[in-house]
């Protein structure tokens, strides 16, 4: 029968190991999916945590250790009971049970991997929920021990769960303690070690320096492989943050090697579509951290028969990015997290690599033929991106607009042709380009747009605000007399004047510099040119 925490505490304090182990197992089964706890027994649960940790320091059998650690893991989901847990002595005890001591043989010396896994899970929970534990873990050099064990990952006897929670622990520490990222990357060779883990996990073979032999690699990834790779990619994301500023010959090679592996990750399939998309998402996030000068490996792989290419460059990876973006847009939820990273990556690639920009331009903004619908209406990639230009989330709409602007070589007139002035107004206002012109990007002039005959014939009838040809509407003033027209005009003027005086609206105009300014301010600063006086006979 299941026992309350208070009854279990009595058993722990009484020292009855057999009864305690049985009670722990029942408690763990009952509470395996419990994440919200009753505040009434908070003090009891805090004491139970202390009792479990004291019991773990005694000489008890492995099965009892595993049950106690599992119970501690469940209890540590509540951050309110962690004060007595987050001490140097307790963190050291959990490190010892997790095999994170300063010898490479620590894991091999412990025959029961279940104890190691549960201790790692406890450390993950405690570090996630306690800032004190986070700092203690840094002081006790947990990351050094993890990096030592990363070197053992070629050992097939090391269980998947140990690898997984090692990497989860490294991810958490590098996420919460940002100061250790440089240490992991440089002093502990974390970038190289984690990249090697990806290599081992995928069993990669290489044709060339930065080219994976795809035909020799495994097919569909298992769920365990996706889980492990996701943790590696998340840890690498933290480790590579702000690392593009200090590039030397060695780091340039490491980043290119990593980019080649990530290109391969984009092409892989998992055991479900959702898992494939999850892996691609982590790969895209990490690619955004890699110096843009190293991303030429995405397109430098020789093209195979039937693969997508542009001017001799392999565009298979770029097409995956585009397809991924469209899938995330179609889902419609969490667009900021789901769409902005891939858009930002394609923006930087398009700015740097003209072949990528041209390929994406051809796919996203093909020559216009049907001008009967608004740019935001329809199911094409262009329609979907134009809709995002007026999204409620500022980050989403700015990134979508920036992407289209870069594809148009940052030329205002070219952008307006595909989006209409109304959709582009936000971007143009932020760039002081409301009066036209172009952005600051440097692009070649070798691939100018060529308008279709359909566009040329429809151009005089396109509404520049909406970006499409509108059906002519009857003029409501045709049936009015001159007196009625004058009355309606004065009525409209009075309405605007009233709204303006109450500061509900503020009439604006575009300045010569392309920004918006109040009309009143412009009139106040306006000085008419002096008339030149000339004497006449």
Helix share, percent = 55-70%
Outline type: elongated
**Count of alpha and pi helical runs:** 25
Uncertain stretches:
none
N/C terminus separation: 121 Å
Percent range for β-strand residues: under 5%
Count the beta strands: 8
Rg measurement, Å = 32 Å
Largest sheet: 2 strands, antiparallel
Spatial ordering of strands, largest sheet = 1-2
The SS-based structural class is mainly alpha
State mean pLDDT (0 to 100 scale): 89
Features:
single chain; 537 residues; mainly alpha; two-stranded antiparallel ribbon
Short description:
This protein is mostly helical. The chain has 25 helices and 8 strands. The N and C termini lie far apart (121 Å).
Describe the structure.
The chain has 537 residues and is mainly alpha-helical. It is 57% helix and 4% strand. The protein is built from 25 helices and eight strands. The protein has helices at 5-14, 17-31, 42-56, 62-75, 88-97, 113-129, 131-139, 142-150, 160-176, 181-187, 190-202, 223-239, 249-267, 273-287, 316-331, 335-338, 340-352, 354-364, 381-388, 394-407, 412-419, 421-430, 453-458, 482-501, 519-525, and strands at residues 206-208, 211-212, 309-310, 313-314, 462-463, 468-469, 508-510, 516-518. The protein has a two-stranded antiparallel sheet. A two-stranded antiparallel sheet has the order 3-4. The protein has a two-stranded antiparallel sheet with strand order 5-6. A hairpin with a 2-residue loop joins strand 3 and strand 4 (313-314). Helix 13 (249-267) crosses helix 15 (316-331). It is elongated, with a radius of gyration of 32 Å. The termini are far apart. The mean pLDDT is 89.
